[in-house]
Amino acid sequence: MSMLELHGVSKTFGEGPTEVHALVDIDLSVDAGALVAVMGASGSGKSTLLTIAGSLEQPTQGEVLVGGAALSRMSRNDQARMRRRSIGYVFQDFNLLAGLSAVENVSLPLELDGMPAKKAQSAGMAALEGLGLADRASHFPDELWGGERQRVSIARAVVGERHLLLADEPSGALDSTNAEAVMRLVLAACRRGVAAVVVTHDAQLASWADRVVFLRDGRVVDQ
To answer: How far is Cα 128 from Cα 93, in angstroms, rounded to an integer?
Structure first.
């Protein structure tokens, strides 16, 4: 089953002489359990592709389906609910809440979706342990270094019963040992049936993927 489908997706910013074509007629399908890496130079449209796939941004043209459901037919509230329940997103800038501890950041999406706090925090701790952060669970984001914040962000993305994982440079702030731990966690999620799309500049990280998609100037140039 295709967990993510992009059909003829284009994204344009600006108008007239300042118009920029960030994505041009993108077709992409990612099956449940598959790991797809997206590579390309800076400005090739990789991050825009992820934000559109995750319903954080709307395409100018084309259609996006997550789990067979067309995003264009969902209200904003329905899209927000789908993101909370079905999509794990790893941002380059982490997007952690400063007033919550590491384990509270990880468990928050589960609690918002109705899971009891104790059960949610137990699941959050298990995700942090998988990334070697059990001893940092009670620390706040400003008490963690960049690599630790990145791992907390990844733990938040994979916790729970997500069906789609979207990761923007998940190993960018990590050394090789922790980058490998992150990829093992992503692969473990894929073995549970999660579909994953990982944007990366790292050829070694991309080698873990089932398929690599190359973007240039907003177009798919090779797969």
So the answer is: 19
Going by C-beta distance under 8 Å and a sequence separation of 6 or more, which residues neighbour residue 70? 63, 64
Number of H helices, E strands in the chain: 7, 10
pLDDT in tens, 79-105: 988 888 899 998 877 889 999 999 999
Contacts of 153 (CB under 8 A, 6+ apart): 90, 91, 94, 95, 96
How many CB atoms within 10 Å of residue 187? 15
Q: Which residue, 145, 149, 156, is CA-closest to 111?
A: 156
Has this prediction a pTM greater than 0.70? Answer: yes
Residue corresponding to tokens 């952690």:
96
CA–CA dist 119, 111 (Å, integer) = 9
> Please, which residues have CB within 8 angstroms of residue 43's CB and are 6 or more apart in sequence?
none
Residue 220's pLDDT is 94
Closest CA to 33 of 206, 186, 181, 159: 186
